[in-house]
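Form 7-S
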Amino acid sequence: MLRVLGHSTAACDGLTRRDLLRAGMLLPFGAGRSLTRAAGTAALQSKAKAVILLDLFGGPSHIDTFDPKPLAPEGIRGEFGTIATALPGVRICEYLPLLASRLDRLAVVRSVTHKYNSHNPYGVMSGFDGGHDQTDYFARPTNHPSVPSVCQYLGVGRGKDLPGYVMLPAMPGYTQGLRRAGPYGGYLGPRFDPVFATADAHASDSIQESKDFYSHTTTPAGEPRLPKIGGDLTLDALDRRRSLVEQLDAKAASFDAGPHSARRDAAFDLLLSPKAKTAFDLDREPLKLRERYGRDLFGSSVLLARRLVEAGVTFVTVHTEARPNGHWDTHENNFKMLRHILLPFLDRALAALVDDLAERGLLESTLVVVTGDMGRTPKVNGKAGRDHWPQCGFCLFAGGGTKPGVVHGATDKIAAFPTDHPVSAGDLVATVYHLMGVNPEGMVPDHTHRPQHISHGGKPVWGVIA
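Output:
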């Protein structure tokens, strides 16, 4: 139960001190303060109205998915065969048949390369790859902001009836009690953080001790749910507190509610929104469609992402982290994890999403992005796994002003390094900014009021832009 302890002392306007504190916990941080927009972030014509990002946490193996090397030596090419796709001469992993038949509707980037060897979405979501595991593994208020946070700061994609930015199925790191860097507002402030859904943590022992961490026999189950504010707080109680917030709105500019109030206020809006409750109700979808996406945690999350975009949310990210085995960090048992859990999930859910958006007339206005924190080593290790390899990875685009049916970039004979059109993390976010109508050359002020480049030197990947 959300409570404020202390004696009830009335203020001069008749409100008690307890009411002031209680309502203040729900006030947006810095409400009433004008935002300073740095020069150079001029608006462009938007091709996309919404973005769905599927972040394949852990680092998906590029050589076992969209950049196979069937002629490489045995210890590199892996165990999988390849299949033909809808693009003549282009082959991908045999366990991606649905995406193979739809590759003419996707843009595939095979030459993603960066320096950030860390398991969090910091590089994916901000475009900054100069971080270090020791300092940037966990979220800090001085981190560079995520792309959705920057866009909202600049006035692009702010929510009305619903938040502008939602992350599913929960906060990155939720299964391990971590708050991973990447999805937050960083130095722009917590008011530009996402609203996080909640999900069961599938708790187990530590990563090193968990026997299920590399299991291929159990698929994470459940559904993302509306966020919680705390305890047994009722909607009636929330309604009463909203009325207090409205009474105090005029005082918001001088009221310091603390760093977590903005997220709590956004969650408050989401909980009280009938539109949000409807969007989160996956039972409204036909059973056949739910099965197309997959009746597991990640399939449900991707379906919910489509429902949220349809309801008016601008940015939805799905972070595929769930213990014991919903991750792509395949240091061990790589091929069985991919074959039995990870590739079927990606194949099924992404194919369903592209089809579903197209059938609803939403694909042209919705940018779908699929990538991960890194690729995997070309050489298979002694535990039938592949280790970290940020030097090479992949990204998929669909809809939202991208060019379908293209393969951008190439790698060497063992998928170790790009040989053509290398694409940085900054290039990927610059592409998203451009398609969302934000100048990727723009700047925003950091916590010291110094201008920072929002794409960190990246340029749009023109080869995938229509």
